[in-house]
Amino acid sequence: MLAYVDSLCAALLARNQSEIRRLLALPLASRLPHQVREEANAMARGRTTSFMAPVNALHFYYKLTHLIDESSEIPDISPRTERQMELPLRAVNG
């Protein structure tokens, strides 16, 4: 999915309308959030000189990259043989 969204963002930034249409015709397009799909459709229909920026697509790409970065650092939850370190504490008279 990340590679697909990356390709879509590249096509949107390049204002490559034929590539945007080709990517939106793929089955993965149905998994895009509604705002991203609508934005891509609008850019595919619009002029290549338009000042419209693919903000929703870029934000979705940004969120996906962070999800992948976080999921690659899955903590080890296996049982540990180490014991908890004990700290010597003194009673405070007061």
Give structural notes.
The chain is mostly helical and about 90 residues long. It has one domain (about 1-70). The chain has helices at about 1-15, 15-25, 35-45, 55-70. The model has no long low-confidence stretch (mean pLDDT about 85).
Please state roughly what percent of the residues sit in beta strands, choosing from under 5%, 5-15%, 15-25%, 25-35%, 35-45% or over 45%: under 5%
Structural class: mainly alpha
Q: Overall pLDDT, averaged?
A: 84
Gyration radius (Cα, Å) is 24 Å
Total helix count? 4
**How much helical structure, as a percent, in the residues?**
40-55%
Low-confidence stretches are none
Shape category = elongated
Based on DSSP secondary structure assignment, what is the total number of beta strands? 0
Provide a brief overview of the structure.
With 94 residues, this protein is an all-alpha fold.
Describe the secondary structure blueprint for this structure.
Blueprint: H1 2-14, H2 17-24, H3 34-45, H4 55-71
Structural features:
mainly alpha; single chain
